[in-house]
Design a protein that fits this description.
DNA-binding transcriptional LysR family regulator; LysR_subst-bd; alpha/beta; Arc Repressor Mutant, subunit A; seven-stranded mixed β-sheet; elongated; transcription; two-stranded antiparallel ribbon; D-Maltodextrin-Binding Protein, domain 2
Length: about 325
Amino acid sequence: MKNATARLAGLDLNLLVVLRELLRQRHVTRAADRVGVSQPAASAALARLRRHFDDELLVRRGGRYELSPVGEQLAEQVETVCDGIEALFATGGGFEPATTRREFRMVLPDHTIALMGGELAAALHGGAPHARLHLMLARAALTSTIEDTIHTVDGVVSQPTARFRMPEMRSARLYRDRWVCVAAADNERFGRDVVDLDALAGATWVVPYHDDTDFPSVVPVSRELARLGLRPRVTVRVDSFQAVPHLVAASGHVALVQERLALACGLPLRLLDCPGPGGRFEARLWWHARNDDDPAHRWFRELVVRVARGTVPDRGGSAPG
């Protein structure tokens, strides 16, 4: 214990901040700018870090730097360590939005960024002009990695799933919406307000994050298709929710999309009610319980909820929590 304590006392914790930015930016000059030190100082810090870890960390390939295998491993760990240190020293102290330089990190789907990302960025800048916002796109595998992800970010925007129901998870409702079928406005095959299952079963589909070998998958639209009893004939797959209306509007395909996104995109689309009851969902902000008493995090999540509820009106009535 004594040796471990001595080693910890001998560490220069400023190197952690430099390490985090070097691994994020993969560029010495940009990392120096983000930390607020000179480029020679950042280079000297990199040299010290390389000696400490006995590894290059950043490896030049062609005209740019890439992370070494050790650098890749540290990139995941340093975020958790720095977040923990920031939370530790924030405990019992005041938080001043006007002066904070904290970076707030969120994982969310691209259609949520389209609906409220701009307003969130503006609200954050208005309330905390020196703070930074890092928005990371949610991927299809988010549900399977949520236990690790939730430790490294300030929040995740997602519909509720079984994997999110852990004792350490907290959440707040952002907005409600519903699924609708969409087809191009000039698609003569779909001319009614409600489309029947036979027509959908015979249609060609655009489906985001589709996996032929895993249906239904954890992706929300896949679960909704399964609820309708549909195994779609997928003609176009795309790793984006926001792109789906664009692909439908210019083709004879159909898709399931969030009603709010279909209305906001301004494309020549026909919106059709899905067959049968249901089709409603709720988007929630999720965070780890350890952030409950962090005043900076509490301020940020209240901002996110306020922006979402003011920007994205609820649609489709009530939804399950």
